[in-house]
């Protein structure tokens, strides 16, 4: 009786807290960004960077790794791929929690507003991570945690609404079709 109702109130209160996503915003100033061409996935020397170079750069930016290739850095000597351009202000928003696909579609639509005036972004990106130790990934297979628990996809959307889609999963996982 009383024990059951106490338990129910505990779970309902904590489930509500667990389902409420945590949102953080930051502004990155004078950020070195790769130059991208929507129709050129492989990149061209001195013209544009490849999808792989972009994906690696994104990992560095999202993990707040310095991009200036200082030999004194014990953490990373990574530098932004060539060709690149310095963006005066880049906006980074991180949402942590359980987010349904419909909300991700809404986020993509809202992000596309950055292509309009006065913002006029050239491209933008949305990365969706599954939890590293999630029991499922894509298709019918269990998600293999093994070493890193990779389980993510990333959209790069261009002003002309072309887009690139990166997918990353662990070596023992099924990749989506």
From TrEMBL:
Look up the domain of life of the source.
Eukaryota
Cellular-component GO terms for this entry: multimeric ribonuclease P complex; ribonuclease MRP complex
A biological process (GO) of this protein is: endonucleolytic cleavage in ITS1 to separate SSU-rRNA from 5.8S rRNA and LSU-rRNA from tricistronic rRNA transcript (SSU-rRNA, 5.8S rRNA, LSU-rRNA)
Q: Name one GO molecular function term.
A: ribonuclease P activity
Q: Which InterPro entries match?
A: RNase_P_Rpp40 (IPR013893)
One Pfam family from the record: Ribonuc_P_40
- Recorded protein name is RPP40 protein
Q: What organism is the protein native to?
A: Loxia curvirostra (Red crossbill)
């Amino acid at each position: 009786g009383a024990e059951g109702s106490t338990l129910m109130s505990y779970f309902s209160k904590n489930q509500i807290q667990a389902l409420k996503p945590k949102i953080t915003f930051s502004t990155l100033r004078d950020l070195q960004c790769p130059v991208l061409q929507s129709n050129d996935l492989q990149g061209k020397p001195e013209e544009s960077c490849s999808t792989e170079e972009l994906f690696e750069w994104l990992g560095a930016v999202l993990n707040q790794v310095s991009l200036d290739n200082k030999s004194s850095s014990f953490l990373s000597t990574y530098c932004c791929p060539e060709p690149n351009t310095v963006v005066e202000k880049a906006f980074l928003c991180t949402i942590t929690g359980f987010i349904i696909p419909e909300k991700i579609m809404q986020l993509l639509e809202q992000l596309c507003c950055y292509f309009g005036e006065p913002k006029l972004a050239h491209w933008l990106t949305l990365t969706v991570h599954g939890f590293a130790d999630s029991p499922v990934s894509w298709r019918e297979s269990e998600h293999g945690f093994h070493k890193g628990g990779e389980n993510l996809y990333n959209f790069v959307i261009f002003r002309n609404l072309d887009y690139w889609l990166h997918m990353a999963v662990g070596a023992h996982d099924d990749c989506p079709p």
